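Practice set, problem 2.
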Amino acid sequence: MSLLRWLRRTPVIAAIALAQPAAAFAPHAVEPPGTVLLLHGLGRSADSMRLFEQALAARGYEVCNVDYPSTRARVEELAELLAEEVSRCRAGSAAPLHFVSHSLGGIVVRAYLGEHRPRNLGRVVMLAPPNGGSEWVDAFRDTWLIALAGPAARELGTDPESAPRRLGAVDFELGVMIGDRSWNPLGSWLIPGDDDGTVAVASARVEGMADFRVVHENHTFIVTSPRAVWQSIHFLEHGSFAGETEE
């Protein structure tokens, strides 16, 4: 699909792409680009990933924008639910299967891939993942606030036994993107260093990742950032974010 044809298909996506270098969206090879499974963050829904869904579909990908009960189960249980969604989404396709996740969704993807790695696994982009845990959870773990957020939220602390820390290094092509803008003064007071209001920039990193990028966005709205969309597509297609790699 030519760049011009792609821009015409979705006006919103055209506005995103016109602000970026055209070379980043060179035509695909003959092979189909594959399937992308989108996984939202804690307490969100598939609607929060709608901009990614539109952009990826316009680019020619098959897109599965998954809703899952993020506040009603533990991480390992959510990973098993994801396995069921992957089976439905793939429907026997041999094309590459990519993932783009937000926040908790990234931890669920890591837990899933640790147990159910598909043979056609492509690349993975994680937006604002608490790969090293979150001090926010440490501070409020035993309060009504985290209880309301659900069982998985309680597992996202920074202690060695937290769900993210138990998963270890990654062994797949992973790009991690995190914001450095916070609209949460309390969260930023609790979190050391630069942060997005929920996760420290340093805590988004994980051993084995292929690339890492910081964008000027906050935790909640990084999924509505045109820059994040463009960079994510670039990673899926090239194995790195646009510009020099940092890892």
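Problem 2, part (b): a different protein.
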Amino acid sequence: MMRMFLKKTDLAGLLEHLSRTRQVYVPSGPRFELLSGKPAKQTKIDLNRKTFFSAKKLFLPAREVLFEFDGKGKTTAMPKPARIQAPKTVLFGARPCDLNAIKYMDMVFNDDPYYMKKRQATLLIGVQCTSPQLFDNCYCHYTGTFFADNYDLLLLHVAGKDSKGGKGGFLVKAGSAEGKRLLATRFFSKSGKSNENQMDEKLEMLRKQFKKLTKGKIRAETKINEQAIEAMAQDCYSCTACTSVCPTCHSFLIEDELDIDRKSGKRVRKWDSCQLKRYTRISGNVVFRPERLQRVRQRIYCKFRYSLEDQGMMSCTGCGRCIDVCNKKIDIFDVFDGNGKEPAK
């Protein structure tokens, strides 16, 4: 089977082509940025490192109006998904950890029209990691998320020159009918390498190069160290930086915002965090997780145990963003006997 190839010099043209009919988001600095109509060659696209922030906001905005009300017993709600604002979008440069995070969120919000309408309007073009030495806090080899299968196109960078003398580029693999149609455009050509297993062999080799190697993947029976959780709780500030950058944290609150007439207004969904004391406040001013230790434990078990039981997939995809942004450099994987190392005897 012949692999398709995208030259580096054709990447800007491809993104400009896509931006004519879709909003295109690319990794640029700390987050995924909208091209905003600028030529792709003038936009700083950074494929050498992961973004601090994930692309979660494209499908689950930090603030989203669910419906409006007018105080006359009627609403101007949006009961039909067709009325939800969901422009055609391309998410370019998402790494396997983010692709797997989207896969998890698709299961959680599969019956939420606000999320799903935006998700269905989005084309996913993933980029496989090829420089693991740049990602000190990545654990995708431990969470089993170094590979992804939910993409329209997957790009794998290869050095050297292509068959026409160009300066390298990307081997490209389609994962959907939409992806196959895109491969038929003028930006892609057939690769001169016909070994079907070459891409998989290179991915396996890359996975073994990660600095933080472990002794196997996390499984349902993997023991969680309670003493490590207690140590984390002592260091934690409850600043919520970890949950803000996590690609799968989806705690939210819903508030009714009244207009000045105190009759009309809107119902809004906003991001929240399970690490805040207020998150578990219910009627009667009862807080059922008042202690930080309880909240930290909830996050650990949610990431590695509850999600696995409920969705058949862990909600931690090993991206390491929570470690990157933590003021105390708390490593969530310390709960597994020293990051998978043999426990001290």
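Answer key, part (b): The radius of gyration is 22 Å. The longest helix spans residues 292-311.
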